[in-house]
Amino acid sequence: MPTISEEPNNEALRIAESLEAISNAINKQADKLRAEPTKLEPALNVLHKTTQSGKIVITGVGKSYLISQKLAATMTSIGTRAISLHATDAVHGDLGIIERGDCLLALSYSGETREVIRVCEIIRGWGDCCVVGMGRSRESPLGAICDAWIECPVDEELSTNVCAPTISSSLMLAMGDAIAVLLMQKRRFGPLDFARNHPGGFLGKTSRE
């Protein structure tokens, strides 16, 4: 577990150490990608191919669902059609949003979330949509049924006595953002495109200047 200072009046130091622990996990992930640059290619190829004619449907439950909402919003704003789908709602009618040629991006750090696995099994059974998973290990129930995998392992979470998703959720969000930007670049989505999608607020104003 990270060594977080427990001394009184050291709250800022404890926050700083937590941020360092998150940063270290992201840097470790970057080092792994540099060491094995081809390991991510299958997932990236599936996602990029999907953007040519379909959309990316990002699913999860709990914190992973919240990450899926953020990633879908980011992708949509920078040129990749994407939506967020709660895995529980999916099996109660919302699977209707998924069309032939779409890609399901399934988020589960443990790779054992039953609701997410169920959705992936259904989509795989359709035979006309690819499934990409993101989580700790391909050697998991979810990893076993995915066409491609985005591995995001961490050694620990921030808390020493509660395994609340902190470092793991930060890494998954960072990986998702990095992939979203890569897809944007591959589609040659530029400032004028962004301005069209984002007319409001400070970002909209600065994108038109």
Q: What sort of overall outline do the alpha carbons produce when their principal axes are compared?
A: globular
Which CATH architecture is right? Answer: 3-Layer(aba) Sandwich
Major pleated sheet:
5 strands, parallel
Mean pLDDT: 94
Helix content: 40-55%
Spatial arrangement of strands, main beta sheet: 2-1-3-4-5
The end-to-end span amounts to 47 Å
Unreliable spans = none
> CATH superfamily membership, which one?
Glucose-6-phosphate isomerase like protein, domain 1
Number of extended strands: 5
Strand content: 5-15%
Compute the number of structural domains. 1
Outline the structure in words.
The chain is of the alpha/beta class. It has a single domain, classed as Glucose-6-phosphate isomerase like protein, domain 1 (Rossmann fold), CATH 3.40.50. About 55% of the residues lie in helices and about 10% in strands. The chain contains nine helices and five strands; from the N terminus they run H-H-E-H-E-H-E-H-E-H-E-H-H-H. A five-stranded parallel sheet has the order 2-1-3-4-5, sandwiched between helices. The longest helix is centred in the first third of the chain and has 25 residues. The mean pLDDT is about 95.
